[in-house]
Design goal:
Blueprint: H1 2-17, H2 19-32, H3 34-62, E1 66-83, E2 92-102, E3 106-120, E4 123-139, E5 159-164, E6 170-171, E7 176-178, E8 181-183, E9 186-187, E10 198-202, E11 211-223, E12 225-228, E13 234-241, E14 247-250, E15 256-260, E16 263-271, E17 280-282, H4 287-292, E18 295-298, H5 305-313, H6 316-334, H7 340-364, H8 366-389, H9 392-414, H10 419-437
Parallel strand pairs: 1-12, 3-13
Antiparallel strand pairs: 1-2, 1-5, 2-17, 3-4, 4-11, 5-10, 6-11, 7-8, 7-11, 9-10, 12-18, 13-16, 14-18, 15-16
Helix pairs in contact: 2-6, 2-7, 3-5, 3-7, 5-7, 6-7, 6-9, 7-8, 8-9, 9-10
């Protein structure tokens, strides 16, 4: 029995010293460490949800993301329909009220944004005060081709309508100048039955000319985003603001733009041919097509700690693998030995980096949080490697490798557009360095045995 026990002990020790077996065990450990990584990922998602709730609370009181669509000229009319009745009885004619929508011939929007950042606890949201002025012209509504009798057109109930995502945030609306006549806006989207909110101006009997000019303005509070729809045959939008990091969104990017630390200026000039809906229609609204054609600006900061932490987590397996590989190569090249539990503690320190990055970033900003978290983990891993391997050189090299990895990761996070290129070149250089260092390693030798081929 003693001999069998000794044989098993010897077999176990040989397996532990086998280079391939140890490498497989370290790889399995790296996979096991994905469990705490998943928990950290769930914490990032939870903090993103909490931040979104805080933003919604701020914007619900100030003004939500604003979508400003208009103006629409809507004219109701009567339509006679023949309705089939029961068999044996004559059909009957019923009269229904429908509406026709007309868009402006030309539309010009000039807007300015004054921004600020508001807080709810540690979370923040960019908000703005905007001054928007609209001017342009309409042609007289053309009902030709629709088989509608002129007597059935209800000209006296025509309305000029503006759709605004959050009309509660409208401040100081100026009356509409309709071909020299002032008309006050009224609340509600009037004849536009699309589910969107807005304001409207009843035009009454003011559609007896061939063309009509209009102009009006209002101040509008909002947050995060401001967007428009290209409703004119030609739509021109000029927007300026004091936000230094705008993100232009939508189906059209500005034809010209300037961005500096003091703010931005941008201009769009959009013809109607590419927007996907006509200049006039009746009955069914083109609400989805109009919403899909919107364009504008987002006031989102490009350096968001939760988003950056989520991005950095994508590289965590690379960090674990390269750090473990560095320590493992030290074992092979120097004959020093580390227990699998010691690998696990080093891996736990690397995983903890992402939690430190997130928690510190919510208070000090991403750059400062990254430096503090990286420095703490680098010193901890280097000191532990020094103590565990009994060599200052080992601790210095392992710490230097981890420092290089964190520097490499920071460059990848900052250079979003070039991250793939930089990452590919960096991985190639890392692989080349590993191949160079291990070019004389005898992989058949046991750990702690001969390391160089004769």
């Amino acid at each position: 029995m003693t001999e069998i026990t000794n044989e098993r002990s010897t077999l176990f020790q040989n397996l532990r010293r086998n280079t391939l077996v140890q490498g497989i065990a370290i790889g399995i450990l790296a996979l096991i460490l994905q469990i705490p990584v998943l928990f950290i990922q769930s914490v990032v998602w939870d903090r993103k949800d909490t931040r979104q709730e805080a933003i919604e609370e701020i914007t619900s009181k100030w003004g939500k993301q604003q979508e400003v669509f208009g103006p629409f000229l809507v004219v109701p009319y009567l339509e006679q329909r023949t309705v089939q009745t029961e068999e044996g009885r004559p059909s009957k004619t019923e009269v229904y009220e429908e509406r026709a929508t007309f868009l402006p011939r030309d539309l010009r929007v000039d807007g300015s944004l004054e921004t600020e950042v508001r807080y709810r606890g540690i979370f923040e949201a960019p908000v703005y005060r905007s001054h928007l002025s609209f001017e342009g012209s309409f042609d007289r509504p053309d009902f030709s081709g629709w088989s509608i009798s002129p007597a059935d057109i209800l000209w006296d109930r025509a309305e000029l309508i503006m759709e605004v995502a959050d009309p509660r945030a409208i401040k100081d609306a100026v009356p509409v100048d309709w071909s020299g006549e002032e008309i006050e806006f009224e609340p509600g989207a009037g004849l536009r039955h699309t589910g969107r909110s807005g304001i409207h101006a009843p035009l009454g009997q003011r559609l007896d000319s061939e063309t009509f000019s209009f102009s009006y303005a209002f101040d509008l509070n909002g947050s995060v985003q401001l967007s428009f729809a290209p409703l004119g045959s030609n739509t021109e939008v000029n927007l300026r603001g004091d936000w230094a990091d705008p993100s232009f969104q939508g189906n059209w990017l500005p034809g010209s733009r300037q961005v500096s630390e003091e703010g931005f200026t941008s201009s769009w000039n959009i013809p109607y041919l590419g927007r996907g809906y006509p200049q006039r229609w009746r009955g069914v609204d083109h609400d989805e097509a109009i919403a899909a054609s919107q364009f504008g600006v987002d006031l989102l900061s490009p350096v968001d700690v939760r988003r950056q932490t989520e991005r950095s987590l994508k590289y965590q397996m690379l960090f674990l693998g390269l750090t473990f590989l560095t320590v493992w190569l030290f074992e092979i090249l120097t004959g020093m030995r580390l227990h699998l539990i010691q690998y696990g503690l080093i891996g736990a320190a690397l995983c903890l980096f992402y939690l430190l990055e997130l928690s510190l970033g919510e208070h000090f900003g991403f750059a400062a949080a990254y430096v503090i978290a990286a420095a703490a983990v680098i010193m901890l891993v280097a000191a532990y490697a020094w103590a565990a391997m009994g060599s200052a050189q080992s601790g210095t090299v392992v710490g230097g490798v981890v420092m290089g990895l964190y520097g490499f990761l920071y460059v990848l996070l900052m250079l979003e557009e070039y991250s793939l290129l930089v990452g590919s070149v960096g991985l190639f250089l890392i692989l080349a360095a590993i191949m160079y260092v291990t070019r004389h390693v005898d992989w058949d030798a046991p750990v702690g045995g001969a390391t160089a081929k004769k």
